[in-house]
Amino acid sequence: MRTIVAALAVLAAAVPAAMAGWSTIASDVGTAATGIYFTDATTGFLPADENGAGAEIVKSTDGGKTWTTNEPHQGGLLFLDVAGYGENIVVAGALGEEYSIDGGAYFNTSSGGGSGQCVRAVGARGNPDAIAVVGEFGLFNPKNGVAMSTDGGAIFTTFDAKLFTDARYGAFPSAKTWYISAGNWPEANDDKPSNDDFAPKNDDFSDAPSTITRTPRFELRKTAKGGYKPYVRLPGRDAMVTGNETIFQAQISLSTDAGKTWNSVFENKGDFYANGIACIDDNNCCFVGEADAGAAAGARIHCTNDAGANWNRTLFLPGPQNSLLDITATGTAGEYWAVGGTLSSLDANATFYHSTNSGNSWTLDSTISGSYASAVDCRLPPPVIRESTAPSCCAIDGF
Ligand SMILES: *[C@@H]1O[C@H](CO)[C@@H](O)[C@H](O)[C@H]1NC(C)=O
Ligand SMILES: *[C@@H]1O[C@H](CO)[C@@H](O)[C@H](O)[C@H]1NC(C)=O
Ligand SMILES: *[C@@H]1O[C@H](CO)[C@@H](O)[C@H](O)[C@H]1NC(C)=O
Ligand SMILES: *[C@@H]1O[C@H](CO)[C@@H](O)[C@H](O)[C@H]1NC(C)=O
């Protein structure tokens, strides 16, 4: 893993996405990041971590080619994901949210949220209703689900998504329709925390030990093939988890009344855990999942065309080396990108799967040697002119 740990790369697909392969457009952006968000063709944000410097929000104004820190943040903050709309930018992290109302010039601390590994705009991307963070919220009787802000990220209200496992990612196709993906992997595979502190040096995976290293930020798990695979891990998670920690579990919980009531619309106990989820609209959604052990080891995509009533597994990549971490809808009819990689003890290759028929079928569009794509985002398609050479979709190699 040494080769991909040192360089945090930004990976991009040019416009129009359907015609272009993915390539690396920036390297060595930081040492760890798990989210990426572009406001428009030129302006993008990454929640990054610099060795020794702690958490920071880095910004690009040239379509992702160069990235600069626009504000120093104190060490100890752990930023994991970023999203926004217009001049509003919200960063989620293990110790709370921060928000900007001026295009990222200044970030202030949000109130009411908690530990979130995913933040997404709610509703139409160009005209959102709110911004949502998925994770665990509150120290006492924590809510495992979603925190919602209707004022650009200043104040969050929390909702428990009635899950039997950890809330991980969300998709919010409209103001009232919220999908939460959840999952856990067998804790029996885990060691005691050996690096249970916030020292940045422990975020460097290049000194992977012979067993398993866990930091509050990430956990390294040994794969069946003897390699290492990183997982985002929130501090205090063990204390809050309600699920069965001896098996892989995946779950999708759906609310169609803005978080008042929830239905468990997908459950798997034993095969895999769920990662990113994305929706084209209230009825059409897909999520990615994976397991690196067991009879059903491999990466997969499950999709619904009927608002969660049925989920078909429309892609399965068998084998513990296959990983899918995130998925996004592009805004073009029927189009999704799902990203992840193949991992071994020696190297990793980022993979980019594409669907243009609402997730019914997938093609492997691109592979990038030496990378591992952990998050993907597509900006709104340009309304008129499509001959821009700026990237329309970006992914981050966060490890
Ligand atoms: C940051 O938020 C706090 C709490 O809402 C507020 O009192 C303060 O004025 C804000 N700071 C800036 C620079 O906007
Ligand atoms: C966890 O899953 C295992 C395997 O299916 C099962 O035997 C066990 O009873 C479950 N434990 C709980 C607490 O649900
Ligand atoms: C990555 O791709 C290279 C070829 O570019 C191949 O040799 C290697 O086995 C691949 N590794 C994984 C984990 O897929
Ligand atoms: C799921 O499978 C059914 C039956 O083959 C099909 O009608 C439906 O379109 C499929 N949905 C997805 C999302 O693949």
Automatic annotation (TrEMBL):
What are the protein's UniProt keywords?
Signal
Bias class Basic and acidic residues marks the residues at: 189-204
User: What protein am I looking at?
Assistant: Photosynthesis system II assembly factor Ycf48/Hcf136-like domain-containing protein
Lineage of the organism:
Eukaryota, Sar, Stramenopiles, Bigyra, Opalozoa
SUPFAM superfamilies, alphabetized: Oligoxyloglucan reducing end-specific cellobiohydrolase, Sialidases
Gene3D superfamilies for this protein = YVTN repeat-like/Quinoprotein amine dehydrogenase
State the source organism's domain of life: Eukaryota
Extract the signal peptide range.
1-20
* Keyword Signal included in the entry's annotation: yes
Ranges for the region named Disordered are: 189-211
Which InterPro entries did the record assign?
A: Sialidase_sf (IPR036278), WD40/YVTN_repeat-like_dom_sf (IPR015943)
